[in-house]
Specification:
Layout: H1 9-21, H2 30-34, E1 35-39, H3 45-56, E2 67-69, E3 84-88, E4 101-105, E5 110-114, E6 121-125
Length: 128
């Protein structure tokens, strides 16, 4: 199992407090507002299978799995190119890859789940 994300609300609160104390401004970005949270136990079983494959380093069912995710939608936090990678979450009954994906952020080991082909993301919470 992957380690829980190292991104915390405490770190975000510290950044806001720091900006306020030095007279800066804090603005909410659409990306931050668009990322939700989902408990690991609430993911579909196929997402568990995908996360297990990621942990094992493959083999993956599709050649696109493990490729760089560009974050063109701008929903995930902004990172340098190559930070995010995407993996297919198999959709039973679909003749294509379907819309479900796991997108990983390597540095902080965060895992995001999307069921709607990048229109929204949920950060996987391993602690609930």
């Amino acid at each position: 199992m992957r380690f829980p994300p190292r991104i915390t609300l405490i770190g975000a609160a510290a950044a806001v407090l720091s900006a306020l104390l030095v007279g800066g401004t804090v603005t909410a970005t659409p990306a931050a507002a668009a990322v939700g949270s989902i408990c690991y136990s609430d993911l579909p079983s196929q997402a568990h299978d995908t996360l297990d494959l990621i942990e094992q380093g493959g083999p993956y069912p599709y050649s696109q799995d493990g490729t760089v995710f560009q974050n063109r939608e701008g929903i995930l936090p902004s990172q340098s190119s190559g930070y995010y990678h995407e993996y297919t979450v198999i959709t039973p009954g679909s003749s294509t890859r379907g819309a479900r994906r796991i997108v990983t952020g390597e540095e902080n080991q965060e895992d995001y789940y999307t069921a709607d082909h990048y229109e929204s993301f949920d950060l996987v919470n391993y602690g609930c």
